[in-house]
């Protein structure tokens, strides 16, 4: 039998009643106590104390807590990653819609009074994209230096994709 043993698994010499009590003890979480368990199971505290000492409940329940907390942390991290991806995807879709609207915009449709508001929104984005392009250029330059001046042509579509990916990575 090649099954992996975990410390909270039933021990070879641990009876089913003792193991059932141990599992209930584990499920009580950080506020667990033998007194509370005794009340819940209608068992004497002295019996539970003997089982606890004989089968190392404290150490085993601590290992169970760590295992369970690791599972919860991974689930939380996955939920955060999925949420951030969803936000990034939504933002990318919105930017596509805005980009198409700008492409269709004619100068005579813009009111002079709206220009300062547009500039206030666009200038920070333009600066951020220039900073990203500079960072990308420097990164490519370092790569070229390391690779004995191998030239790489980057298309505007590749730059847009890398910018979108960088924004998603920053959001994570």
The gist of it:
With 172 residues, this protein is mainly alpha-helical. It contains six helices and no strands.
Task: Write a structural description.
The chain is mostly helical. Among the domains are: 16-68; 107-172. The protein is 73% helix and 0% strand. The protein is built from six helices and no strands. It has helices spanning 16-27, 34-41, 45-54, 57-104, 115-146, 156-171. Helix 1 (16-27) packs across helix 4 (57-104) and helix 4 runs antiparallel to helix 6 (156-171). The two termini are 42 Å apart. The mean pLDDT is 83.
Percent of residues in helices comes to: over 70%
> Average pLDDT value?
83
Rg estimate, integer Å: 30 Å
Largest sheet: none
Structural class: mainly alpha
From the spread of the alpha carbons, the general shape counts as elongated
The SSE order reads: HHHHHH
The unreliable regions are none
Instruction: Count all strands and give the number.
Output: 0
Give the helix/strand layout:
Blueprint: H1 16-27, H2 34-41, H3 45-54, H4 57-104, H5 115-146, H6 156-171
Helix pairs in contact: 1-4, 4-6
Question: Which terms summarize this structure?
Answer:
single chain; 6 helices; mainly alpha; 172 residues
């Amino acid at each position: 039998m090649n099954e992996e043993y975990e410390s909270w698994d039933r021990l070879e010499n641990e009876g089913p009643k003792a193991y059932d009590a141990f599992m209930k003890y584990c499920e009580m979480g950080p506020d667990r106590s033998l007194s509370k368990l005794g009340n819940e199971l209608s068992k004497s505290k002295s019996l539970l104390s003997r089982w606890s000492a004989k089968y190392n409940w404290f150490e085993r329940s601590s290992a169970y807590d760590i295992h369970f907390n690791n599972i919860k942390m991974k689930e939380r991290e996955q939920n955060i990653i999925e949420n951030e991806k969803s936000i990034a995807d939504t933002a990318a879709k919105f930017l596509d819609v805005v980009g198409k609207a700008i492409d269709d915009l004619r100068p005579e449709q813009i009111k002079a009074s709206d220009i300062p508001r547009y500039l206030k929104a666009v200038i920070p984005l333009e600066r951020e994209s220039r900073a990203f392009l500079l960072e990308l250029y420097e990164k490519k330059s370092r790569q070229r230096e390391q690779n004995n001046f191998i030239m790489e042509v980057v298309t505007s579509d590749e730059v847009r994709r890398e910018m979108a990916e960088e924004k998603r990575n920053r959001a994570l």
